[in-house]
Amino acid sequence: KYTNGYYLYEMDRPLGTWIIRKWAGVNPDNGIVQFYKEDGTKTESESEAYLYSDYGSYEIPIFGGFQTTFRYKSLSLNAQFTYAYDYTVMNTMKWYIYNHNFNGNKPVKMLDMRMQPGDVTDVPRFGLGQPSPMAWQVLEDASYLRLKTVRLPYAFPQKLLQKTRLSERASIYAQAESLLTIHDYTGDDPEISDES
Question: I need a surface site. Which of 1, 19, 144, 149 has the fewest CB within 10 A?
């Protein structure tokens, strides 16, 4: 068994298995981030937090692609799909934009930060002096199905080409890339993670 940062390397476990603290929300009394300990109780201390390894792996176990073509006379439509299933990535952009200590525009969710004792929220109070620590709240399922390429070629009729004497075959086409991606990942693109 060997750990390297947030990765666990162990026999009979997928390569790139995540090992990270389990987020337990924000303490409503003081607005500080909490983690789970091994016994299931909560702590605000990172050193007391248990490192869990049941969040999956960044290695993609199931991936591939397929394509289909429809033809009607001289026109055809080719669609190519790609997919990946059952892998987890770290959305570090999410960690960055949800932290008070980093400059830049912030999402509306930051207005939910803990303001006074008793507020129940998952956004820690402002002014803790350090960013929220990395924990499982930044790990996300990045499974997706993408319409990668659509190509619409038109083949000029043979009779027309024979009159021009330029070529026996000629066609023109229009092509579009990455038209649709179905996923639950909250980052920009599940195929290109911030860190994996």
Answer: 1
